[in-house]
């Protein structure tokens, strides 16, 4: 009996992994485990009879190990600060592991566990979501036949076409987003890492429709944590991440006001951290995910600009991904793409299509052909241009 466990299975992205895994013939049971039992039960109910819900705090090591024992794979969709905690439990339970990203610094710490996972004949994949994840796999495939890779700029833009949609909503962990707005952006340049201010390096970039022209900024992200080392032999000298779209300036303002701080604040005799207050407020105001009663119609475009040489001649390639919403599941583009990337990765692990061991990033562990084909079957299109043709037009419900 093949069982998948999704930690944070009631969250914005974890719920999608639960639902997609439950639709796969690979798994007989999918467990949605969450600190909030109500959210886990909602996710399991939406996923159907193969899904079950359980309440779990990942800080309870013994309970986590017990839950993971015998599972075919652990999909970790909890906050990235707990990645090492969950990885240790996966080691003790002897279960393959993947997560959705470690915001650079955590990813680097996770890579240090490589020898332990190899010794246990296990695989852990840090950052197998949408970005990082799909971005890493596409970048690696786009560089595979190049003689040299000189630079790589990973840009991500989004646009919301939802009719009567909210002015503000969070489709990805607000806690992680707030960290991205204040922590220095790490850029790999001239063969070494350098820190830049968060939200620096602003530029207008023309993404594929339906996103179009969007202002993007440097923020801290996980792709530069692994791709420079992976592509070292091809001479990569520059790698950076930029993102932008509606709401990013609001996030920056929130972060500058200190709403991401973990330093306790005394409010009328009560000690509370600004971050805990912010997260509780967003939850109360129902700003996490798309609100009920609307048809989701937001889109996200990934565009990786790669410069290098092919057969001795200069070449520029673009590895692109177009991420649609999943309105019938009431999931935004980000929720759907992150969750599906994780579930596809879990299926590849459980079916033996990934055989490497250790702590291995997506670009060195995931076979691009099967991965991209499984994404396409779920409505997520990708292309590497050239040699592949550009993505065709897309239908949206916008007027």
Name a few traits of the molecule.
globular, 399 residues, Rossmann fold, seven-stranded parallel β-sheet, 14 helices, 2 domains, Dihydrodipicolinate Reductase, domain 2, alpha/beta
Give the arrangement of secondary structure elements.
Layout: E1 3-7, H1 14-22, E2 29-34, H2 37-47, E3 51-55, H3 61-68, E4 73-76, H4 83-93, E5 97-99, H5 105-111, H6 114-119, E6 123-125, H7 134-143, E7 148-160, H8 174-182, E8 185-189, E9 192-196, E10 200-206, E11 213-218, H9 223-230, E12 238-244, H10 248-256, E13 265-267, E14 270-272, H11 274-284, E15 298-310, E16 313-323, H12 333-350, E17 358-359, H13 362-365, H14 368-377, E18 381-385
Parallel strand pairs: 1-2, 1-4, 2-3, 4-5, 5-6, 6-17, 7-12
Antiparallel strand pairs: 7-15, 8-9, 8-12, 10-11, 11-12, 13-14, 15-16, 16-18
Helix pairs in contact: 1-2, 1-12, 3-4, 8-10, 12-14
> Rg, please?
20 Å
What is the number of helices? 14
CATH architecture of the largest domain: 2-Layer Sandwich
Q: Helicity level, as a percent range?
A: 25-40%
N- to C-terminal distance: 48 Å
Report the uncertain regions.
none
Number of E-type strands: 18
CATH-assigned homologous superfamily of the largest domain:
Dihydrodipicolinate Reductase, domain 2
